[in-house]
Amino acid sequence: MSVLMDTVNVTRSYLEKLSTPELISLADEYGIDIPESLNRRFIIGELLEATEELNEEKKDTMHGDGEIPTGIDLPESYNETTITAVMQNPVWCYVYWDFKESEKEKMLHTPSFISFVLKVLFFGDDEKVQETFDINISSSSKEQYVLLPPHERAVRIDLYAEFRNAEPRCLARTGLISMPKGCPELSFSLLDNDVPEIIKLSGFSNLIRTHYLNHRQSFS
């Protein structure tokens, strides 16, 4: 007979139903050395004591409330300056970043420091930068959703620090991300088709298109 040790749910009534050879076999699984002449009542006592010890060991690996942990609490910061971008869907990109605290504090206390910036760069088929735009971010923020035009081929997002009378400093950058295509519902033609003719005549569609192209960080 083989008993699964992981269950650790052995009771006296259960043990008393087992034959002596079965009790000895179970004791072997627990690593208990049982002399041949030992009374079965003492074997049962040894098994119950071993079971209690195993249960105590299991409790030590659980949280204080007795629940088995379902995950690991991650730190708020790994104290490294990094940036990562993940496409949430064909037009929304989720960007998150972190700072090395000592470097961040040094920049914040620099008199010429202006702000931290996300620089969004679009690349064409020749892998050259076709277009860019900036998004100012606060020193306390660590994530941002960015709305991207669906017709671009690839995007990269850089984390910069801007200073007065000095070149911006690139702190970290994502890898080049290929942008998914094939969503005609997300093209600019939808905007033109969704407005009444009288609104089109007013130039409203062109106004919205221009605002998106020149100020799309406000859509983020």
Description:
With 220 residues, the protein is α+β, with helices and mostly antiparallel strands. Helix content is 31%, strand content 25%. It has helices at 12-16, 20-30, 40-60, 101-108, 188-194, 197-201, 204-215, and strands at 82-87, 92-98, 113-123, 129-137, 143-147, 154-163, 169-173, 177-178. The strands form 2 sheets. Strands 3, 4, 6, 7 and 8 form a 5-stranded antiparallel beta sheet that branches. Strands 1-2-5 form a 3-stranded antiparallel beta sheet, with no helix packed on it. Helix 2 runs parallel beside helix 3. The longest helix is centred in the first third of the chain and has 21 residues, at 40-60.
What key attributes describe this structure?
220 residues, alpha+beta, 5-stranded antiparallel β-sheet, 3-stranded antiparallel β-sheet, 7 helices, 31% helix, elongated, disordered N terminus
